Hints:
Elements: E1 6-11, H1 15-24, E2 28-32, H2 43-55, E3 61-63, H3 76-95, E4 100-103, H4 116-136, E5 140-144, H5 152-161, E6 166-171, H6 172-178, H7 183-190, E7 194-199, H8 220-228, E8 234-237, H9 242-256
Parallel strand pairs: 1-2, 1-8, 2-3, 3-4, 4-5, 5-6, 6-7, 7-8
Helix pairs in contact: 3-4, 4-5
Amino acid sequence: MMQIRLGGHIPWAQINDYLELVLDLDLAPEIAIKGPELDTLDEELLDQVAQSLAVAQVRPTVHAPFFDLNPGALDPLIRQVTYQRLSQALAVAARLNAHLMVIHPGFDKWRYPNLDQLWLALAKEFFPPLLEQAAACDCRLAIENIYEETPDTLVQLLEAIDSQWFGHCFDAGHWHLFGKQPMADWLDVISSRLFHLHLHDNHGRADEHLPVGDGTIDFTPLQLKLHKLTALPSMTLEAHSEEHLKRSLHQVKKLLL
Length: 257
């Protein structure tokens, strides 16, 4: 049986409701925090969560803010705000002793028609200082596929920066919605820098965040790839209710282990 690090998604606003549940299920929390929450953070609660994680001997994942943010934005003020938010989130990740922080790229071909190389050039300049901060707190960064039809743009970004602290987060649900490349081929391209997985399901029409196995995604290529890897990525079950989390956990153990 493969030994994998499974996690459960928790919005920061619901940390008191779900942290104990996720830990009781022997999962590592992936704590998702929104930009405005960073400005009103309850420092005492943050310390309490950090203590609970330390007692459980769990290093969580943090999901950085993403609404309105873009590391390769053409407007320098948007890049400035994006850096501020991601740096703030990384400081929170450090206090929680997180091993990884997930970041959205903010790129899609419709808002950036024929501008992918310009976006890439700006993103290449954006990340190195943030990666210095990440290395200082022993927290790797993983950039997640969202609207990408192929992994090419994200692969070019990671190859250009070429840091051991910077890798891929493969989101199976987003791939099913937007990907135009077979899952096996996508995974082959990113496998050398695959740090993390987001596991959830849908029917190819909306980002439903269903339990694994409740939609139409064929996870067989992922199962085969995981069995070939020498270093397995961490994985988060992106379920949005207790019932879905438990069902997804049950299904993942059958499908991937």
